[in-house]
Amino acid sequence: MSEQIVYALEVFANGLMSGVLYALVALGFVLIYKASGIFNFAQGVMALFAAMTLVGIQNGQVPFAHLINAVLGTHIHHFGWHIHSVLALIFTVGVMILLAVAIQRFVFRHLVGQEPIILFMATIGLAYFLEGFSDLMWNSEIKTLKFCVAEGTCLPQGMNMAIDEAAYNAFGTGFFIDNLDISAAIVAVMLVIALVAFSQYTKQGRAMRAVADDHQAALSVGISLNFIWILVWSVAGFVALVAGIMWGAKSGVQFSLSLIALKALPVLMLGGFTSIPGAIVGGLIIGVGEKMFEYCFGTGQCFGGIINLGGATENWFAYVLALVFLVFRPQGLFGEKIIERV
Amino acid sequence: MKKIFVTAIAGLMAASPVMADLVFPSLSYRTGPYAAGGIPFADGYTDYFTLLNERDGGIGGVKVSVPECETGYNTEKGVECYESTKGEGALVYQPLSTGITYQLIPKTTADDIPMHTMGYGRTSAANGDVFSHTFNYPGSYWNGASGGVNYLLETNGGDISGKKIALVYHNSAYGKEPIRTLEELQKKHGFELSLLPVDHPGQEQKSQWLQIRREKPDYVMMWGWGVMNQVAIQEAANIRFPMENFIGIWWSGAEHDVLPAGDKANGYKALTFHNVGRDFPVFADIQKYVVDAGKAAGAGDQVGNVLYNRGLYAAMLAAEAAKTAQEIHGTKDITASMMRDGMEALEITEEKMAALGMPNFGPSFSVSCENHGGPGLVGVTQWDASSKTWSLISDFKATDIDVIGALIAEDSGAYASENNIASNCN
Q: In whole angstroms, how far apart are CA A65 and each of A136, A283, B33, B68, B346?
């Protein structure tokens, strides 16, 4: 096999891996939209808040330390402990559940029956609030995220040497796959299986699906909308936490994590706003599409380099790709076709 | 009785001249995606002036005030900050953003307020004959590009012909700044240059680093800011690119840029125009008069960090220019126009820096009407992951003035003709 083909395959495989990371973010959007019809603009900021909370708890950081010090003239920053990652994860899930309760109690309970655009605008407000709240609670410094399930068993990073060596032996050239991306793919598969199992085989999951299908009908059979929405926001919070861990492990936990939502939008446009498999497939298509386009036309590696756009095509090409799909399937690949009859 | 009291007060006020504060606004960004870089700079800038107030009673006996305005690294907000603070008697602006700098160049010139863009902004503003109110001493991006190439020449026995250098840059006006200079230097030294743009914010760089893996450049230079830095260093570690061959500009060389990559970032290098660490007498004073006194701008945990030192250095240069202005004009209560004169006559010597508790903190230099850019000396720092410290591994050295000077003349000449600017120095 020629080196050029191996390189193309390497780009393709890395595109798939990037797609999994995009899908992780998109999943949170889908869950909330499917159950409540709300496009949650704050999903990216939830990932930031969740990751900051995880690192803060792990490192024993005192929440609101700057505020406390400014008001009381103290100099406290840390409790002086370091909590095991798994324990910190459990506490963080607890915080995300509390956040879901607060969001439902103080924001959306007062907006029942409002137009979707009002609900959407409420999530924009929520995003800005959470941004500031995260900074105030855990400060703006970049935090290093090290997630270990046991001593010496941490979230791996760096080139997978086994794949690289196998490719070298077979084709005479290496093959780069990041261990973190492999971990993200495994976690994403487990997450999707868990979400599908939860929604198919548990009472709460079936209630969630009933609410997603028809609010009024669900209410009429005694399902509590309040409870289901808290449940959905909690699950979306957990998905945001997973996305925050995966992205934060690479770049450090910092404000820019909130911008990963931008990567999910073309995935949602392509996969549909109401489909969990759509988020996964959409993520993979966008990931592969943007990487292959950059490889072929961004850097002029294909067709003798007749088209070389000079790079940095990924951000805009993802949206172009999604728009092309929308021309043929306006509801997205897996979205529900909405037919409104007069 | 009341009449006597009022007369006495009026007499007292007439007898003693009123000294207003010297105002040095800080256009900072403590929020948003670039806050991690904005906070230490703003802390260093404010803490130095607090030190002068607490230890020396201000500058020349006049207290200093540093009103802070949050820009969020947003150009529109930066301009709003300028408009809302210039009426307070602002002496000099340090916008800490190339975008804001470009917007403020005509405004500050019209308002007769100087602007200092140290190591950023419009490089050709070094030509004071055209840019009367903008100063970018002691160095600019083009000095950075040339300094990086000079360092590679030095480590390759003076010959880098045939070597491959990749530039990974933020796909913005800031990131594109060094390209012209590097292209000129490519012609002169015969190295191969490849350009790899990264879109804002820079969280996803897989394509660029796969390309680097394929093309195997000898060196990678980086013009990044914010999350782009951390991701690039992590990706370089992932593909096992040798860190000692990876050199960032001074905005890609702070502690928070390398810490997320852990031990794998060991050996990464960054260019600089000032010294690093806290092994300078001034920090003992900062600790005593500012941090321990509870008057630090932040939590006091940034003292000695690379960007804190940069803010401190910027404040020191501003304070020295204010002193020069006071001497030139024979008054303690200087205006922005006088401050501009002080900046243009600024002379920084090693003796002066040593007296300030900052020996060898930066290069010695002097500013003139024609040269607002200073000497453009560039040093190199390297990260030691085990001790988590930066150290200066190459002293401040001269850059290629022949190449840079011609580019400055070309760019500033174009600006002058577009804006009908006559010579300021004749």
A: 8, 38, 21, 21, 41
